[in-house]
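Slide 14.
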Amino acid sequence: MEKINFVKKVDLLQKTVKDFIGKKLKTNSFLQKYEELYSYLFLENENYTLNHISEDEAGIFDEIHAEINLFEPNINYRKEHPSYIDEEQLRKNIRSILQKVKNHK
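Slide 15: predicted structure.
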């Protein structure tokens, strides 16, 4: 993977997160874009990615990915499985992750 393409993908992943928490991006679009970029960076090109970003930055993307895995749009399913979260809680949790990182800098 070339460095320029890599930097663009990381920047796009960061912008995707910011657009979602800023409500500029609908949930389905966010989920699709995040999954595509996350898969590209952390599954298909994991060694390259981990050699070019900090452990902390990788951890942030992993935490956000874990929150996405808890998202469930179906309210009835969430009632039966309270560990799953809705769209607003997903935004709130991602904001919290980013705020925690910001406070540590």
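Speaker note: Residues 96 and 102 are 10 Å apart (CA to CA).
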